[in-house]
Design brief:
The complex is a heterodimer.
Chain A: H1 2-36, H2 43-53, H3 58-81, H4 89-127, H5 130-136, H6 141-179, H7 184-194, H8 197-223, H9 228-261
Chain B: E1 9-20, E2 23-34, E3 38-43, H1 49-56, E4 64-69, E5 72-73, H2 79-85, E6 89-92, H3 104-115, H4 120-133, H5 150-162, E7 168-172, H6 180-196, E8 203-208, H7 211-217, E9 220-225, E10 228-234, H8 235-238, H9 244-250
Parallel strand pairs in B: 3-8, 3-9, 6-7, 7-8
Antiparallel strand pairs in B: 1-2, 1-4, 4-5, 9-10
The chains are: A mainly alpha, B alpha/beta.
């Protein structure tokens, strides 16, 4: 009886703590929207964050995109060959890259790289009183630090996803036509027959949403940092873990919604 | 507590009380901070000094009581008004709190970029003047905070705090954890800054638990204990205080 009571108490405590955290996160999100529409609009900060998130992720996105496309082409080819539809490698890989792998893998890469960096940068500013210094000057920390990162991330991730898709398709084309000897003409004719612009849109819309989530989570955990270097490490870790989990979970919900409207 | 002869107040604190849940941090404080003077608030760790500072800056709202700064009641100001109002303050943080991605020059330029419409030339004049006035040499202007010593960082932090010509300059534990030579340097800097800005009526408020340094540089010293001001005297009389807590603190 006592142990059951303890279990219920623990469960209740965890529910309350998690609801409280969710409330804080929601409040942070609302503050982002509030401060996004208030001057001054720091365009230079947005641009420099765009360069950090976009430009500096370019190499790893191209590398991952190329190898993903190449692997997908191989795997699809040998699977499809069993049922004599190996000429469909091009469109299948392209649609998969456009709808799923492009946005999800780009999202996971950006969560690991930029999301972690956001939490670490803001977290270390928090523990060294740099955010307090901003507040004392009359500058809102969320407006100055979170808003440019979130806005630039929303636009950088779709561009990175488009690049991932393009490079992945190039990889798939090279493996399909040069290594697996699929006829080049058939490869492109099947691609144009089965691949639609809506498939691209689906991926880009997801990428926009993932960009928002990853940066919101990264900046949120940066602002929650306490207790020195250890706290910065914990905040960074949480930003990466929750960023990745959210990309995967929301991918399901977005897919189930977008598939109906596009 | 003895009484202080009339001075022009710049910060008026009346029955200031702050509670977090059942815990009372500030317990009905009432005192004034005087224009053009250097005032230090002393106290043990956890006495409520930082909470008091946050109230003066309008970063926290009182549970009860009021704070008037430059004649304006902070309680009735909106968050946006408070944000604007904070530009009347300059602040030097305990560890300077310089923006680590910006050079010494850019740190001082930062508030000018944010809040003024000065030309590039005017900004350059102002930033270089401020950095030189706190003893930073030209070759250190472009160094990052990580490349500066603790004392140099404090100097740059002070220059940044003074960039917008504040009416009230706040120092949070300016000498805590410093060696005696750097402590003397920081003390000299505080006195020198107060003197140079006296004509335009700048007031200095220091939060500290460094008794010796505080008595050397201050005009007035207040002692905060468990959220209450237990002593508030001209610095020259502070050592003579009959309050047992103050006696113990001074003789530590």
């Amino acid at each position: 009886m006592t142990s059951l009571r303890g279990l219920v108490e623990k469960l209740g405590h965890n529910i309350v703590v998690n609801l409280y955290e969710l409330g804080k996160f929601t409040s942070f999100g609302l503050k982002f929207f509030y401060w996004s529409f208030r001057p001054p609009f720091r365009i230079r900060n947005i641009f420099s964050q765009f360069v950090f998130i976009g430009n500096k992720s370019l190499f790893i996105i191209c590398l991952s995109g190329a190898f993903t496309g190449m692997v997908m082409a191989y795997q699809t080819y040998f699977g499809f060959k069993l049922i004599n539809v190996d000429t469909l490698v091009g469109p299948i890989v392209s649609i998969t890259l456009a709808k799923e792998l492009g946005p999800v893998l780009s999202g996971l890469i950006v969560a690991g790289r930029a999301g972690a960096a956001m939490a670490a940068q803001i977290g270390s500013m928090k523990v060294t009183e740099q955010i307090d210094a901003l507040e004392v000057m009359g500058i809102n920390g969320i407006q100055y630090l979170a808003t440019p990162r979130i806005i630039s991330s929303c636009f950088a991730l779709p561009i990175l996803t488009a690049i991932f898709q393009f490079v992945g398709n190039v990889g798939s084309y090279l493996i399909g036509t040069k290594v697996l000897n699929i006829d080049e003409g058939i490869y492109f004719s099947k691609l144009s027959e089965f691949m639609y612009i809506e498939d691209m849109w689906q991926g880009l819309i997801k990428a926009f949403f993932f960009g928002f989530l990853i940066s919101l989570i990264g900046t949120y955990f940066g602002f929650q940092v306490k207790r020195g270097a250890e706290g910065v490490g914990q905040g960074t870790n949480k930003a990466v873990v929750w960023g990745m989990i959210n990309v995967l979970v929301w991918d399901y919900f977005l897919t189930s919604y977008l598939i109906k409207i596009l | 507590m003895q009484t202080i002869e009339y001075q022009e107040p710049i910060i008026q604190i009346d029955n200031l009380t702050k509670r977090f849940g059942d815990h009372t941090i500030l317990d009905g404080l009432s005192f004034d901070i005087y224009k053009n003077k250097i005032t230090t608030i002393l106290g043990f760790s956890g006495a409520g000094k930082s909470t008091l500072l946050k109230h003066i800056l309008g970063l926290l709202r009182p549970t009860e009581g009021s704070i008037k700064v430059l004649g304006k009641d902070l309680n009735i100001m909106s968050d946006m008004e408070l944000r604007e109002f904070r530009r009347n303050f300059g602040m030097l943080f305990q560890y300077a709190a310089l923006f680590d991605s910006l050079s010494a020059y850019e740190n001082v330029e930062f508030p000018l970029n944010e809040f003024t419409k000065l030309t590039e030339y005017e900004k350059k004049e102002r930033v270089e003047g401020l950095l030189r006035s706190v003893g930073i040499k030209d070759e250190s202007f472009n160094k990052l905070p990580s490349e500066l010593s603790g004392g140099m960082r404090k100097r740059v932090g002070l220059a940044r705090g003074l960039a917008l010509n504040p009416f009230i300059m706040l120092y949070d534990e300016p000498t805590t954890g410093l060696d005696p030579i750097t402590t003397k340097m920081v003390n000299d800097l505080i006195i020198d800054t107060a003197k140079r800005n006296k004509e335009r009526g700048m007031t200095t408020l220091i939060i500290s638990h460094d008794v010796r340094a505080s008595l050397e540089i201050s005009d007035f010293v207040a002692f905060l204990d468990h959220g209450k001001i237990v002593e508030y005297l001209p610095a020259k009389d502070f050592r003579k205080s009959e309050n047992p807590l103050v006696k113990e603190f001074v003789n530590l």
